[in-house]
Amino acid sequence: MRLAVSKHEIKMLSLRVRKRNEWRRNQRMSHYNAPFGYEVKDGVYYFAKKPVLCLLETKEELTEFDITKKIFSFFF
């Protein structure tokens, strides 16, 4: 009996997640988890501007977006 109930709950959970993602796509909203260097506000991506790292030598504060720019300039 428990197995049948758990299988049903798994199916219902996947249905809820699928419908929520479909609704967000139809509303042209962003995903809940933003890529590194961005944050989500009101369903739109914005650059993450709060400081997350402070360099000890230069006392420079870096945001996630600054770190992302440095990574891209280093590898590309």
Short note summarizing the structure:
This protein is of the alpha+beta class. It folds into 2 domains: 1-30; 32-76, no CATH class.
Description:
With 76 residues, the chain is α+β, with helices and mostly antiparallel strands. It folds into two domains: 1-30; 32-76, no CATH class. The chain is built from two helices and four strands; from the N terminus they run H-E-E-E-E-H. It has helices at residues 2-26, 64-75, and strands spanning 38-41, 44-47, 51-54, 61-63. The strands form two sheets. It has a two-stranded antiparallel sheet. The longest helix has 25 residues, at 2-26. It is elongated, with a radius of gyration of 20 Å. The N and C termini lie far apart (56 Å). The mean pLDDT is 88.
